[in-house]
Amino acid sequence: MKILFTKPSPLATEKTTLLMTELTEVLSYKGVEDMTTHLLLELDNEVVDIVSIQQLFAFFERWNIDKSPLESLLQLVDGQ
Fold first, then answer.
1. Residue 64 — left, alpha, or beta (φ > 0 → left; ψ -120 to 50 → alpha)?
2. pLDDT tens-place values along the chain, 80 residues long
């Protein structure tokens, strides 16, 4: 599963490094692609669970990112 979301801006180099490091700590993390103004986060479908979703919601909250891209994750877990 991939989630496209707006990258917080502007970020200093050390903040960008911290943001990317925090993303790799999400349990279902598979990869991330920097698309200048957005990030494309890839999650492992086999590992996505409520804990991963909670981690992502906390991450989005911490970095003041719009949480609407996470709605599809909630539907995925609700459907299981």
1. left
2. 899 999 987 778 889 899 999 999 999 999 999 998 999 999 998 888 889 999 999 999 999 999 999 988 877 766 65
Element (H, E) at 3: strand 2-6
Instruction: Name the residue among 6, 7, 51, 5 with its Cα closest to residue 28.
Output: 51
Q: Which domains does the chain have, with CATH numbers?
A: 2-78 (3.30.70)
pTM equals 0.86
Through-space distance between the first and last CA atoms of the chain, rounded to whole angstroms: 15
